[in-house]
């Protein structure tokens, strides 16, 4: 099976390999052997992939991921496929481990304009506690035009949660000339982005140089809540939470200042991820399990499943891949070091 990545020798890390025959498996047919021309090590095509040391047919592993990706619970998937729920969770963990490898595709391209949306989603983790004390908050970053998910991370709704997802946006700031970030009421997105990538503007005047967002980066916040009982001047409906570079264009139409695509994605996530169901008791038991399901959903959303609004896979729509991937291809890809 061909994969989009080059084979890497597990012993020395060399990419210079040659074919070294094949061998037969019980459930997966014949598999190729490769030899490293640098150190002479011989390794299988599954070495370093999610399918390493798994004797289960790859079709069954992919079927489990498809069922989970359509919102089926962990126990129900295990009952249908006749396996144990811990086995399904292990397969998901291996598949989710491909997130760093596949997300590197987006950072290998240069973009002209990008528009990101940031929002939060809540679910129950373990036992029911007040939302302020829960670890079931998920911060999500979405690229608007392609519906490409930049990151999804869960935890307490505090500064650490936003520091998990905003470095991904910072990486895209360096790959684009015009980046707009929109937030529906949460100031910590813009504050964290400013903290990570603010630059100094020197005007030649006396005094401390002013810090601003990078040139070409705009952040707009939609202020929510009633202004009736608030003292002082009334806040504008849309504002920049941090100072922007003087050369950055300020024109952002009010009609574009919304997070509607991300709100629609949150609704879809409640259908496709059983940990976010409101009417069933299928919540994640801990944040590790919740993050695993979020990573599995992100990979299927970005690289496998066509989006219903654009008709294309988000990674293809964004231009970082020429064709969508199949689950079987991802399961046979090597992880990057």
Order of helical and strand elements: EEEHHHHEEEHEHEEEEHHHH
Strand content: 15-25%
Q: What global shape is seen?
A: globular
Report the major sheet.
6 strands, mixed
Low-confidence stretches: none
Assembly state of the chains shown? single chain
What's the arrangement of strands in the largest beta sheet? 6-5-4-7-10-11
Protein model, in words:
31% of the residues lie in helices and 20% in strands. The chain is an alpha+beta fold and 337 residues long. Among the domains are: 1-47, N-terminal domain of TfIIb, CATH 2.20.25; 103-224 and 236-284. The strands form three sheets. A six-stranded mixed β-sheet has the order 6-5-4-7-10-11, sandwiched between helices. A three-stranded antiparallel β-sheet has the order 1-2-3, with no helix packed on it. Helix 3 packs across helix 8 (287-303) and helix 5 crosses helix 6. The mean pLDDT is 89.
Short account of what is shown:
This protein is an alpha+beta fold and 337 residues long.
Topology readout:
Layout: E1 17-24, E2 30-36, E3 42-44, H1 58-69, H2 74-81, H3 85-96, H4 99-107, E4 111-122, E5 137-143, E6 148-155, H5 159-173, E7 176-183, H6 188-197, E8 199-201, E9 210-212, E10 217-222, E11 238-239, H7 260-272, H8 287-303, H9 314-318, H10 327-331
Parallel strand pairs: 4-7, 7-10
Antiparallel strand pairs: 1-2, 2-3, 4-5, 5-6, 8-9, 10-11
């Amino acid at each position: 099976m061909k994969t989009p990545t080059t084979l890497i020798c597990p012993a020395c890390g060399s990419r210079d390999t040659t074919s070294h025959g094949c061998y037969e498996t019980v459930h997966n047919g014949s598999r190729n052997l490769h030899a490293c021309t640098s150190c002479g090590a011989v390794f299988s095509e599954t070495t370093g992939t999610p399918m390493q040391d798994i004797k289960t047919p790859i079709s069954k592993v992919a079927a489990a991921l498809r069922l989970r990706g359509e919102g089926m619970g962990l126990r129900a998937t295990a009952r249908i496929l006749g396996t144990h729920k811990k086995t399904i969770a292990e397969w998901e963990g291996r598949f989710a481990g491909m997130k760093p490898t596949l997300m590197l595709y987006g950072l290998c391209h240069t973009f002209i304009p990008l528009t990101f949306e940031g929002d939060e989603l809540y679910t129950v983790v373990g036992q029911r506690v007040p939302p302020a004390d829960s670890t079931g908050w998920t911060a999500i970053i979405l690229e608007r035009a392609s519906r490409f998910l930049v990151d999804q991370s869960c935890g307490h709704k505090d500064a650490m949660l936003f520091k998990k997802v905003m470095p991904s946006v910072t990486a895209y700031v360096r790959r684009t000339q015009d980046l707009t970030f929109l937030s529906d009421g949460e100031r910590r997105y813009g504050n964290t982005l400013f903290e990570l990538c603010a630059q100094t503007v020197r005007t030649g005047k006396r005094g401390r140089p002013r810090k601003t967002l990078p040139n070409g980066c705009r952040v707009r916040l939609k202020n929510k809540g009633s202004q009736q009982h608030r003292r002082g001047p009334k806040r504008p409906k849309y504002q920049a939470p941090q100072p922007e570079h003087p050369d950055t264009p300020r024109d952002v139409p009010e009609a574009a200042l919304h997070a509607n695509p991300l709100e629609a994605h949150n609704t879809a996530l409640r259908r496709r991820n059983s940990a976010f169901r409101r009417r069933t008791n299928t919540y994640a038991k801990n944040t590790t399990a919740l993050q695993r399901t979020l990573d599995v959903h992100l990979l299927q959303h970005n690289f496998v499943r066509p989006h219903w609004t654009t008709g294309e896979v988000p990674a293809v729509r964004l231009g970082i891949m020429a064709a969508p991937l199949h689950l079987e291809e991802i399961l046979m890809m090597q992880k990057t070091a």
